Amino acid sequence: MFTGLIEEIGTLRSVQRRGEAMILGIAASKVLSDVKMGDSIAVNGVCLTVVDFDRSTFSVDVMPETYRLTTLQRLQTGSPLNLERAMMAGGRFGGHLVQGHVDGTGTIRGRSSEANAVVFTIEPNDPRLLRNVVQQGSVTLDGISLTVVSVDRDSGTFTVSIIPHTLRETVLQIKQPGDVLNVECDILGKYVDHLLSLRDGRPATKSGGLTESVLRDNGFM
């Protein structure tokens, strides 16, 4: 489990590809301070297991399912990466519950400035992901815990607003329209949507969406 608060930006040092499987070698510093074999580290929002490490790098395996579902397949040597160690019990919980289980990807359709913030417009690769994206709710982009500013179901997009600190400390600083990010929807929303679909006897993929009216009608508000 993670919080979505990025600890450092690492650098991809090596990529070994075997079909849809990969071994990534990642240069880092902070996340290596107490690393152990088998530890979980979120790499651009993807929960991966440390299989080898030394003083300056660690290695992780990427299985075919993760390769197909995430942006890790697009990585090249030298790519910057958001890194976060698994959260510690008793630590401050400043983000939201992030599993590192990516739901899909999203393409940046817009980037604009608004006072001290930068607003990103994201179009999920699978429109069904929008049913679990709620205005003022939480979403994870490349491992970053963010608040949803707006959802436009007509255009199939949502927006997030990034403060200067988050922009400086994450890979979002270099992301531009056309770039693709990993998207993880809020786990609480996914469970509520799933349970409501079971109660109503309809597949979750055909639900009307987790909206404010649905939550109110079912006693959640």
From TrEMBL:
Coiled coil: none
InterPro entries, alphabetized: ATP_synth_asu-like_sf, Lumazine-bd, Lumazine-bd_dom, Riboflavin_synthase-like_b-brl
Record pathway: Cofactor biosynthesis; riboflavin biosynthesis; riboflavin from 2-hydroxy-3-oxobutyl phosphate and 5-amino-6-(D-ribitylamino)uracil: step 2/2
Signal peptide (UniProt feature, chain positions): none
Lumazine-binding repeat ranges per the UniProt record: 1-96, 97-196
Entry's Gene Ontology molecular function annotations: riboflavin synthase activity
Enzyme Commission (EC) number: 2.5.1.9
Pfam families recorded: Lum_binding
GO biological process, one term: riboflavin biosynthetic process
Keywords, in A-Z order: Repeat, Riboflavin biosynthesis, Transferase
Domain Lumazine-binding: 1-96, 97-196
Keyword Transferase carried by entry: yes
Superkingdom classification of source: Bacteria
Catalytic reaction(s) noted: 2 6,7-dimethyl-8-(1-D-ribityl)lumazine + H(+) = 5-amino-6-(D-ribitylamino)uracil + riboflavin
Chain's role: Catalyzes the dismutation of two molecules of 6,7-dimethyl-8-ribityllumazine, resulting in the formation of riboflavin and 5-amino-6-(D-ribitylamino)uracil.
Description of how the protein assembles with itself and partners: Homotrimer.
NCBIfam families given in the database record: PRK09289.1, ribE
PANTHER family referenced in this protein's UniProt entry, alphabetically: RIBOFLAVIN SYNTHASE, RIBOFLAVIN SYNTHASE ALPHA CHAIN
Protein name, entry field: Riboflavin synthase
